[in-house]
UniProtKB/TrEMBL annotation:
Domain Enoyl reductase (ER), first and last residues per copy: 10-318
PANTHER family (UniProt xref): ZINC-TYPE ALCOHOL DEHYDROGENASE-LIKE PROTEIN C16A3.02C
Annotated SUPFAM superfamilies: GroES-like, NAD(P)-binding Rossmann-fold domains
SMART domains the record matches: PKS_ER
Pfam families registered for this protein in UniProt: ADH_N, ADH_zinc_N_2
Top-level taxon of origin: Bacteria
GO molecular function: oxidoreductase activity
InterPro entries given in the database record: ADH-like_N (IPR013154), Chloroplast_QOR (IPR052733), ER (IPR020843), GroES-like_sf (IPR011032), NAD(P)-bd_dom_sf (IPR036291)
Protein name stated in the entry: NADPH:quinone reductase-like Zn-dependent oxidoreductase
Taxonomic source organism: Paenibacillus rhizosphaerae
Length: 320
């Protein structure tokens, strides 16, 4: 099979196309013929081995897993002898956060992995798009912040993958949503359902008078200290990026009843129920995929270069 293989950490060019053996499913595994995968900032971070924590976890001098990519969508090609819930021909969405491997034509996943059947009217690209960002936004808003109807929510970075699904999910849960993006992205953020849009190149939301129950910094560009001013008395600041400061602030604010700061490794907290729920929301039109660019598998380095501009809107998809 064709796979994009990475033999060292480094620039996008360390990832090269190779012909390697197609894997066979173990007894409890399914073999998926991959049709779509995604590239986001975390994939670039793993490729670079930066932050250093990645090298500590996944290999100091070279990545333990030579094929990157976590979210994938495709068709079940074969199943192991003990697989109960999937059969050849099923269209599935899956996540492989433990050993990656989405940038290859075939991938084996344990039946117990985060996996969901894709509804008939959702394409592979849409499914993987909704999962990239949607799963993270769901974990932050529903599980960490316990978002309730009528709350005021601000999403910073509303045009990114996490942000655009955070806007849609916050509306679904009945919040009043303010999206923060640059002026050129206002239309996609409004289309996603934002009630208000702030252009961060013209206005700093942390200096305005409006207070929010939840400030979700989906792109990790604003600190808890800066956002505290615009949180309600028991408001929550959520961030997708782990800094040392946020870890201290999380511990400190959890000891008191006031404003709280929260980081979560949402990518590692996914399960079948979340993916199935996201597919239901996509199927009934609550969530729509926002796909910015598509690249064929062999142009994965170009996709990485684009994602690293930090300008992508919604998802960047790898096609097979
Ligand atoms: N904790 C977790 O489990 C988890 C899971 C997934 C992702 N993440 C992290 O979450 C972050 C976001 O991921 P993503 O895929 O959503 O990112 P992304 O799509 O690559 O973000 C790009 C978007 O960010 C916007 N942006 C850039 N600078 C901005 C600023 N200063 N203020 C507001 N918006 C700005 C850009 O809009 P403009 O062009 O308008 O500026 C662009 O649309 C990444 O750091 C990623 O590693 C964490």
């Amino acid at each position: 099979m064709r796979a994009m293989v990475q033999i060292s950490y480094g620039s996008p060019e360390v990832v090269v196309l190779q012909e390697i053996a197609t894997p066979s499913p173990g007894n409890k595994e399914i073999l998926i013929r991959v049709h779509a995968a995604k590239v986001g900032p975390s994939d670039c971070a793993f490729r670079k081995g930066d932050p250093f924590m990645i090298k500590l976890l996944y290999g100091l001098s070279r990545p333990k897993f030579a094929i990157g990519g976590t979210e994938l969508a495709g068709e079940v090609e074969a199943v192991g002898k003990e697989v109960k819930h999937f059969k050849a021909g099923d269209r599935v969405l899956g996540m492989s956060a433990k050993n990656f491997g989405a940038y290859a034509e075939y991938k084996c996943l344990s039946e117990e992995s985060p996996l969901a059947v894709i509804p008939d009217n959702i394409t592979y690209e849409e499914a993987v798009g909704v999962c990239d960002g949607g799963a993270t936004a769901l974990t932050f808003l529903r599980d960490q912040a316990k978002l309730r109807k009528g709350q005021k929510v601000l999403i910073n970075g509303a045009s990114g993958a996490v942000g655009i699904y955070a806007v849609q999910l916050a509306k679904y849960y009945g919040a009043e949503v303010t999206g923060v993006c640059s002026g050129g992205n206002e239309s996609i953020v409004r289309k996603a359902g934002a009630d208000f849009v702030i252009d961060y190149t013209r206005e700093d939301f942390t200096k305005a008078d409006k207070a929010y129950d939840i400030v979700f910094d989906a792109v990790g560009k604003r600190t808890f200290s800066a956002c505290k001013r615009v949180l309600t008395a028991k408001g929550i600041y959520l961030t997708t990026t782990p800094r040392l400061s946020i870890l201290f602030q999380m511990i400190r604010t959890s000891l008191f009843k006031g404003k709280r700061a929260v980081f979560a490794a949402a990518g590692l907290m996914q399960n079948k129920a979340n993916l199935t729920f996201l597919m239901e929301l996509a199927n009934n039109g609550t969530l729509s995929a926002v796909i910015d660019r598509r690249y064929p598998l062999e142009r994965l380095p170009d996709a990485h270069n684009y994602v690293e501009t930090e300008r992508k809107k919604g998802n960047v998809i790898i096609q097979f």
